[in-house]
């Protein structure tokens, strides 16, 4: 059976690393992106140049219409999805809760939580043995912030990732008998561009001393955990929250 992997937010950071490693592991890859077409196409080119197969599809995962279009395009171009990585995520400027308005909260929750629900829904409709599918695997990208809370910086982001942890556990139990495994990785401080969105591009350098391994992580280190959870090597793992944090 052809292995088809959809990665949301796949144009950079953990998503791009997962796309490259997924292609090297035999997946045909769909890279979803919201705005940065050039970055997404660059990852596609890297994969195709290495002998893999990949496409890029634009869409905001917080938009139900965009999610429907994403999966319909994958159906038409590649075939039914067999693996999903809910990686798309945003954070906003560092801020105390007392300063946050509803618009900010809506943006953060739409991408980080609602998007994961919508994409999982569409994947399940195609993967589930109850719907005639062949089964599959979903990996949600959470964050160690869900356990630490991100005080004084991103409590809203941490709360959204806490929702992803609960979503992972509940959905795993819900679809376990339908041939679908659902797990999550919880990265720690990783060298990616997301820190720039929060207003502190060098945040990893500031906080890495709090990590027992005394360093930040690389996107590829998270990607390897994601690919393991997608693989048959993790065939009896579902509802798992796998920390990739350097011991933090």
Automatic annotation (TrEMBL):
Cited Gene3D superfamilies: NAD(P)-binding Rossmann-like Domain
Key words of the record: Oxidoreductase
Recorded superkingdom: Bacteria
UniProt-listed SMART domains: PKS_KR
Keyword Oxidoreductase on entry: yes
Any one Gene Ontology molecular-function term assigned to this protein's record: glucose 1-dehydrogenase [NAD(P)+] activity
Enzyme class, broadest EC rank: oxidoreductase
Ketoreductase domain span: 3-193
The protein's Enzyme Commission number: 1.1.1.47
Keyword Oxidoreductase: yes
PROSITE patterns from the UniProt entry: ADH_SHORT (PS00061)
Protein family membership: Belongs to the short-chain dehydrogenases/reductases (SDR) family.
Name of the protein in question: NAD(P)-dependent oxidoreductase
């Amino acid at each position: 059976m052809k292995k088809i992997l959809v990665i949301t937010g796949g144009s950079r950071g953990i998503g791009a690393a997962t796309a490259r490693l997924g292609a090297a592991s035999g997946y045909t890859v769909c890279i979803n992106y919201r705005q940065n077409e050039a970055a997404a196409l660059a990852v596609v080119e890297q994969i195709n140049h290495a002998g893999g197969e990949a496409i890029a599809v634009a869409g905001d995962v917080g938009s139900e219409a965009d999610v429907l279009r994403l999966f319909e395009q994958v159906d038409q171009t590649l075939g039914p999805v067999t693996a999903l990585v809910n990686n798309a995520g945003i954070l906003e400027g560092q801020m105390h809760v007392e300063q946050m308005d509803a618009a900010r909260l809506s943006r953060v929750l739409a991408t980080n939580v609602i998007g994961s629900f919508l994409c999982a829904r569409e994947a399940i409709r195609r993967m589930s043995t109850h719907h005639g599918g062949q089964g599959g695997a979903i990996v949600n990208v959470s964050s160690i912030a869900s356990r630490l809370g991100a005080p004084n910086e991103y409590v809203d982001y941490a709360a959204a990732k806490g929702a992803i942890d609960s979503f992972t556990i509940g959905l795993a139990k819900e679809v376990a008998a339908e041939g679908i495994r659902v797990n999550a990785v919880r990265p720690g401080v990783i060298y990616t561009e997301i820190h720039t969105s929060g207003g502190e591009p060098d945040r990893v350098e500031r906080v890495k001393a709090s990590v027992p391994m005394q360093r930040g992580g690389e996107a590829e280190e998270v990607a390897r955990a994601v690919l393991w959870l997608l693989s048959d090597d993790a065939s009896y793992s579902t509802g798992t929250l796998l920390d990739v944090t350097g011991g933090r």
